[in-house]
Design the sequence.
């Protein structure tokens, strides 16, 4: 995990740049995002040229549904940064998010139970 | 807004908690379909959340590491398993993980029961669904669940199971016990 220490140092500059890029604006989408909320690109033929490098990387990753935690882990960015980038991408229609839920319903719990028992 | 041929995916969370060295990472590793991933969150030094990036440059932050794994239950349903950060004082991070979760599996090591007290208190006080899973190390004395319940002053409603975090089938049983318990509690949940 020597890697971790490296990027903590560069973090301040990187986070600062990402802050500048979003203008410090907090999107209303922001609050709905959970570590387990999943995202996928909205369409295959989007023009991604106007996006920042991190946003293009997210679009490339989210060809299948991936959670905020996975995006954060794969791109080596803290969750707070992933949250900001993802909420912007949702606002701009680049990615779609799975619907936010307060907690799993009984039906979902049963699906999970049956799924785990079948493994 | 999704194309008609696509179902909105569901994701659910399980929190894996317990003291240092109780086997949290071992459990996640044994059941996850991918090698566990690591992510990080920035918190202020006081342990509060960095809500957004506004003003972050002026704040002293500290990094909390999280390990997590993934189980695809079926095509449209993914279960994420989040290990709680090793640093117990960052409760705000626990709050984020526990919010909307099925519940928690709290691991205990009978040689060091006290190392899991903080985790048990956390879930008990907030009324969050949890089960206690005794991670058995074969060379150790095998305690009966009721002995452990007495030692932990645990409510009779909280399931206690014995398992081996290194074995996938055994770890799955711990998750199944949690989902069962969540289902039992579901009808009584206050909206």
Sequence:
């Amino acid at each position: 995990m020597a890697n971790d220490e490296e990027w903590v140092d560069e973090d301040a500059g990187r986070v600062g740049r990402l802050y500048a890029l979003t203008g410090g604006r907090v999107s209303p989408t922001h609050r709905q995002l959970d570590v387990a909320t999943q995202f996928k690109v909205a369409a295959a033929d989007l023009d991604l040229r106007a996006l920042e490098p991190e946003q293009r990387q997210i679009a490339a990753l989210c060809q299948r549904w991936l959670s905020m935690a996975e995006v954060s882990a794969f791109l080596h960015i803290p969750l707070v940064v992933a949250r900001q980038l993802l909420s912007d991408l949702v606002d701009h229609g680049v990615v779609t998010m799975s619907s936010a839920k307060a907690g799993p319903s009984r039906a979902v719990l049963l699906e999970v139970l049956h799924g785990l028992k079948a493994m | 807004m999704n194309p008609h041929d696509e179902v909105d995916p569901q994701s659910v969370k399980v929190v894996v908690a317990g003291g240092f060295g109780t086997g949290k990472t071992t459990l996640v590793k044994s059941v996850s379909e991918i090698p566990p991933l690591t992510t990080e969150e920035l918190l202020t030094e006081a342990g509060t959340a960095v809500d957004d990036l506004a003003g972050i440059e002026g704040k002293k932050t500290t990094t909390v590491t999280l390990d997590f794994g993934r189980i695809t239950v079926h095509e449209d349903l993914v279960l994420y398993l989040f290990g709680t950060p090793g640093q117990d004082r960052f409760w705000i991070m626990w709050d984020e993980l526990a919010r909307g979760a099925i519940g928690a599996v709290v691991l205990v090591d009978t040689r060091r029961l006290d190392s899991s007290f903080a985790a048990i208190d956390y879930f008990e006080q907030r009324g969050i669904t949890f089960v206690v899973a005794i991670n058995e190390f074969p060379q150790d004395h095998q305690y009966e669940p009721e002995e452990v319940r007495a030692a932990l002053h645990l409510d009779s409603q909280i399931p206690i199971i014995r398992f081996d975090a290194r074995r996938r089938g055994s770890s799955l049983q711990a998750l199944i016990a949690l989902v069962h318990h969540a289902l039992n509690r579901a009808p009584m949940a206050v909206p």
The domain at 10-33+69-186 of chain B is CATH 3.40.50.300 (Rossmann fold).
